[in-house]
Amino acid sequence: MDKNAQVKGMRFESLTFRGIRARPVVLKLERPVVARIATITDWPLILIDLYTDEGIVGRSYLEPYTTKSMKYLIPALQDFGEMLKGHPIRPFELYNLARKSLHFVGYQGMSMIAVAGLDMAAWDALAKAAGMPLCVLLGGSVGSVKAYNSNGLWLNAPEAVAAEALELREEGGFTGLKLRLGRDKMQDDLRTMEAVRNAVGDDMSLMTDFNQGLHLGEALQRCHAIDDLGLEWIEEPIVYDNLDGYAQLAAELKTPIQIGENFYGPRDLYTALQKKACDFVMPDFMRIGGVTGWLKAAAIAGTAGIPMSTHLYPEVAAHVMRVTDTAHWLEWQDWADPVLQKPYEVRNGRLHIPDVPGIGLDWDEGAVKANLANL
After folding, report:
1. Parallel, antiparallel, or unpaired: how do β-strands 176-180 and 280-281 relate?
2. Helix (H/G/I), strand (E/B), else coil: 177
3. How confident is the model over 249-307, as pLDDT tens digits?
4. What are the backbone angles phi and psi of residue 312, rounded to the nearest 5°?
5. How far apart are alpha carbons 260 and 241 in whole angstroms?
6. CATH of domain 137-352
7. What pLDDT, in 10s, does the model give residues 193-232?
8. C-alpha triplet 111, 78, 100: angle, nearest 5°
9. 12-131 maps to which CATH number?
10. 82-86: which pairs have CB atoms within 8 A and are 24 or more residues apart?
């Protein structure tokens, strides 16, 4: 058992909040993000350590896309550390207290992201104190989760994307890959998709993602053009908050529409389902509200019978997918692996949860030190 897993004689219900350390790290991406709306070569991480009076340390991280955003998120996390000192580690209560403390600046955006970082660390601490993996604490079991590889296939030349698809397939015996679309010319997208399909074969599940790069008129043309290609889904062709546009696309297309990485809290998911704006949902943990936000959102999706996939944060994602009624696909990205002592293992297209207390995050302090950012 992890030496940090239990304090002898301690009950996990008695765990007490002591403070937070939040550190900014910037990593170089092995395969840079090349999307229609942005190119990203440097990947920011906020590493969070939640300390307790009993000696348990809960860990989580945030991936806020831009380095400058860490200048605002880290002080918010430090404020939580002061505000919550002495409070029992009860994640639902901490989630509500932290959100309400930022009520006057709104529940979305940076507020929710900071709350999510706190929440994931609190759940990790609680599961460690209980001496069980998070999925077991939540009422599930240790096992594996079906995953697709989302580590590449950006807007590069068709031949390069097809070659990379073969590499990504072999990284973990994947049966699903995501490729990005939205090149200047639709024909270039179509040629790329044909090249990838020819390379990986008909048995590979292919997801496509436009990364919000189209206006509605373009989306109608392009999505109809790929509607008969047997895709797993079409993801975010238009700006994330145009739910009326998504409802039109979902009604017209045979291929399922996937949205959700920009849902800020469970109510956003509920609103999208009310408007029939999608067929699938894939919340992002830093925006949906961490584990607590996911559990609330999963109840809504499960009641509606909507398949639910994950976005980023594969370690946390694996645990909650084991207790998600309509669990669909886990998005696998290894962008945080360089700072982890023991990254999760992928075999035969499935992410395997380690049988250790908590989420299973421990920092490689040498790598952390080498990549600390000077904000």
Report:
1. unpaired
2. strand
3. 999 999 999 999 999 999 999 999 999 999 999 999 999 999 999 999 999 999 999 99
4. 60, -170
5. 10
6. 3.20.20.120
7. 999 999 999 999 999 999 999 999 999 999 999 999 999 9
8. 40
9. 3.30.390.10
10. 82/19, 84/17, 85/17, 85/18, 85/19, 86/16, 86/17
